[in-house]
Design a protein that fits this description.
By secondary structure, this protein is mainly α. The protein folds into two domains: 51 residues, no CATH class; 158 residues, no CATH class. Helix 5 packs across helix 7 and helix 7 crosses helix 8. The longest helix has 31 residues. The chain is globular. It starts with a helix and ends in a 6-residue tail after the last helix. The model has no long low-confidence stretch (mean pLDDT 82).
Length: 223
C-alpha cells in the first residue's frame, strides 16, 4: 500500500500548481522507493523509459522555437493579420482549423498542428482577434472561452480522424482490443469505419462551433 504514496504526490503537486514534469518525476521516485527499489534502479528506469521513447526529445527542439517566435511577436502578427480580414469571425477560423486538422490527421500527419505548436501561438489569438473586431472588445471570461474552444477543436478533430490512417498506433490498439473480446477486425476495416465517425464528428462539432459563434455575436456568455 505504501506504493500508493505516488498518487498522493501527484494530487498534492497539481493542487499546489508545481511544475507537472517535476511532480510526475517525484511521484515516480516516491513510488519506486516505497516499492523497495534502490535509487540507482529508479534512475535506470527513468533512463530506459527516456531511451525507449527518445522521439520525445523533439519537443525540446520545437518548444524553444515556438517560444522565440512568440517573443518576436508571433501572436501579435496573427492578430493583426486577422484584424485586416473583413468578415472573418472566430467561428470561421475554428471551423477552418477543424477541417484542416481532420484532413492532416486522416493522412497520418497528426503532428501538423497541436496545442503548443498551433493552438496557443496562432489559432486562439486569431480567433480572439476576429471576435474583438466584431464585438469591439472581449471580457476575460469570453477570451478564456474562445481559448478553451480552440483547444477542444484540436482535440476533437485529431481524436476522431487519426483512425482513418491505417498505419497509426490507435488502429492497432483498436484491433487488439477487439481481438481480446473475440471480434476479428482487420486494420483496413477499422480505417474504413472510422470515416463515417470522422464525418459525424465534423457535423456535430461544426454545429457546436456555429452555435458558439452565434452566442458571441449575441454578446451572451457562450455555452
Amino acid at each position: 500500500m505504501w506504493t500508493l504514496l505516488g498518487i498522493a504526490v501527484v494530487v498534492a503537486g497539481f493542487a499546489f500548481r508545481f511544475n507537472p514534469l517535476l511532480v510526475i518525476a517525484a511521484a515516480a521516485a516516491v513510488t519506486g522507493i516505497a516499492g523497495g527499489m534502490h535509487p540507482l534502479e529508479i534512475l535506470a528506469a527513468f533512463g530506459k523509459a527516456f531511451n525507449d521513447t527518445r522521439y520525445i526529445s523533439a519537443v525540446f527542439v520545437v518548444l524553444p522555437v515556438i517560444g522565440l517566435m512568440e517573443r518576436a511577436g508571433l501572436q501579435q502578427r496573427a492578430r493583426i493579420l486577422i484584424g485586416r480580414l473583413r468578415g472573418a469571425t472566430a467561428s470561421h477560423i475554428l471551423f477552418i482549423y477543424f477541417v484542416y486538422r481532420q484532413i492532416t490527421s486522416a493522412v497520418g500527419l497528426t503532428a501538423a498542428g497541436g496545442h503548443a505548436q498551433m493552438v496557443r501561438p496562432l489559432i486562439a489569438p486569431m480567433a480572439e482577434s476576429a471576435a474583438e473586431a466584431g464585438l469591439g472588445g472581449l471580457s476575460d471570461g469570453r477570451r478564456w472561452h474562445i481559448r478553451a474552444f480552440a483547444a477542444a477543436t484540436e482535440n476533437v478533430a485529431v481524436f476522431f480522424s487519426e483512425d482513418i490512417f491505417i498505419a497509426l498506433a490507435p488502429v492497432l490498439l483498436i484491433q487488439g482490443t477487439l481481438a481480446a473480446g473475440g471480434i476479428v477486425a482487420t486494420p483496413l476495416s477499422i480505417s474504413l469505419w472510422a470515416i463515417p465517425t470522422a464525418l459525424l464528428a465534423l457535423t456535430i462539432h461544426g454545429l457546436r462551433i456555429a452555435l458558439f459563434g452565434r452566442a458571441l455575436r449575441r454578446k451572451e456568455p457562450p455555452a
